[in-house]
């Protein structure tokens, strides 16, 4: 983690094995379902790109793009998201720790401002809530 900036880490235990959680993040059709996204393209490899259109409550559509920095199957995914007005993508680190039929997931990010961090942390909690529901229904 960076020693400057505002960061957060969210850790949860999911009722699904690590390979199921990994697939939820790396298989476009599956990601689209739980992340409320359309037009999902995931090229999951270091240097690969991703894109999607997030459909937020109320029906607004937000196009998102980014790339993958680090990919360790079923363990770690470091993704960058392109943010208008920023030279460098915002990185998000996703760590998975297998525990039999359960998986501990940690999401972490660092931002320049507390406001950006708080907004991203809220969004990540929303994503993890949706992921938890999706895995429970599978």
Automatic annotation (TrEMBL):
The lineage of its organism: Bacteria, Bacillati, Actinomycetota, Actinomycetes, Streptosporangiales. SUPFAM superfamilies: Bet v1-like. Transmembrane segments: none annotated. This is SRPBCC domain-containing protein. Signal peptide: none annotated. Residues 15-135 form the Activator of Hsp90 ATPase homologue 1/2-like C-terminal domain. Belongs to the AHA1 family. Gene3D superfamilies: 3.30.530.20. It comes from Streptosporangium jomthongense. InterPro entries: ASHA1/2-like_C, START-like_dom_sf.
